[in-house]
Task: inverse folding
């Protein structure tokens, strides 16, 4: 699968051949990922409140939402560290490069996480806290990659908001 950086470079966005306007447009697309992240955080907070109010029936949903929430928050902080939405001193090319680098880091991390998860499954360690942490982290990384691809038009938004969840997390 082609990665975002290759797609951006192929389109010339990483080179200085394009005018500032084209680079700015691409950067704004990627900044849209931050807004999506903030919306997801709000949705998850609301879902956790509803799960808490549901009593004993909502405990499992609350635990799953809390785990996903923590993962999304960690990934969102990495995005904000790479490209702050306020008071960002970087020029457009630098900011775009930092976001491309974050995407590449997440792509490598996702592959490593998948390998670690498979190893846990092969060893029968699917009930361990470490396995749960791997699944949660993979969820966050996968979600960020998905949002980058959607923002740049390389992937369509899924009508099923849980389509990107690992099978173990689906209800």
Result:
């Amino acid at each position: 699968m082609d990665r975002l950086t290759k797609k951006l470079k192929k389109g010339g966005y990483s080179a200085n051949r394009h005018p500032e306007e084209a680079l700015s447009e691409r950067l704004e697309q990627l900044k849209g990922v931050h807004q999506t992240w903030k919306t997801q955080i709000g949705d998850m907070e609301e879902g956790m409140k509803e799960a808490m109010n549901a009593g004993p029936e909502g405990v499992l949903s609350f635990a799953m939402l809390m785990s996903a929430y923590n993962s999304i928050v960690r990934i969102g902080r990495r995005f904000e560290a790479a490209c702050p939405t306020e008071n960002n001193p970087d020029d457009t090319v630098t900011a775009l490069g930092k976001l491309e680098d974050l995407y590449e880091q997440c792509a490598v991390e996702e592959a490593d996480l998948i390998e670690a998860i498979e190893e846990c499954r092969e060893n029968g360690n699917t009930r361990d806290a470490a396995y749960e942490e791997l699944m949660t982290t993979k969820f966050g990384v996968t979600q960020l990659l998905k949002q980058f691809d959607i923002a740049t038009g390389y992937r369509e938004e899924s009508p099923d908001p849980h389509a990107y969840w690992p099978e173990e997390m689906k209800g």
Observations:
- The chain is about 70% helix and 0% strand.
